[in-house]
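Course assignment 3, question 2. Fill in each field.
Student: A.L.
Task: Predict the tertiary structure for the chain below.
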Amino acid sequence: MPPQLLEGEESKNLKQAANQLKNVLRGVMAASFGLSIFFAILLQLIWKMLATIQLMVHTPMFGIAYPGNARLFFSTIIDLVNLKLINVDWILKKIGVTFVSKSSSLSKEAEFGYSGNFVQSAGALLVVTLVLAIICGLGFLLYRNCKSKSPLLKKILILLANKIIFNTFIRSFITGYLGFGLSAFLASKMMTFTNLPTTIDALLSMIFTAICMLGGFIMAAFLMKYQPSLDLLKFRNRCQTMYLDIKVWDRLALFYYPNFIIRRLLFCFVIAYIPMYGQMQVMFFVISCLFMVTYSMLSHSFTWKASSYLDIFNETSICLLSYTMYGYTDLVLDGKTKYTLGYWAIAIFCLNLLMNILFIIYTIIRAIY
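Answer field:
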């Protein structure tokens, strides 16, 4: 029976391959972010690619015997996929705040960057979200106090609110939902109030747990209520991120992002709160994948047909990977089979990433010519 934890040359080669892929992904992301100044649709494609591979690389956190090859591969690239581009620990140390990891150093949570402290686990996206929240608060106070004093300042604040703040805030929530959800749910199980930092961390974890629990349903209610007005300029400026390139006239298509968030809510919930029931976790995951594949095929949510086809491909890729996970449960006892399925999972991941990168290149060429 092959070992479930890799050793020696194979481990070294696999980690090297994962790091090379990580560098390629970092380059594609950087280039796309830069070119998005000229081609706005590139940002949407990057978010779509990240949303797909985020789910894939978090699957080893299920309570199943994930083979060591796939687990090592996914754990190597998870920081980039979760957009942990800022060293939050370094920032915390500079301001004199130190957190002790609440997760065992050998646990899956610690291996995939979830320490049990919300601030540490959520990382860079939490910093961005909190900074945006502070800017929104300060902007609101300035707006309230400058109505009759400075018309120019008022116009600048309205421009920032309409064009940047709200859409950026919504986008950071949607893109970082999986990281926020897992960080908040896992931290909520280990909350302590021994000192000021741990108390603040516990309060933030409770706030974000509530936001993650309700976010998808609030978004669905908002879109349903204001569907006739979503094409108005004030809605497009402030919250178009919730339905960017979505067929707003089609109610089924309009629920793309609420379904997107609720699916991840279920994913985070089963990892955090039923870790001892691996087969049940896999069953819930497979059902959610089948639902999303069916939804994507029925709705064709995006105004650009090619984008809808890419979405179907992405959901099918996640669904195929979810089927391999049955092989990591007690339904399959042969270690060699589990190990082989681990390489199949890596292959599915790489194929999906390759297709998304090729689609981004195709989009650039199409926009130029």
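Instructor remarks: Residues 94-239 form one domain. The mean pLDDT is 82.
Grade: pending
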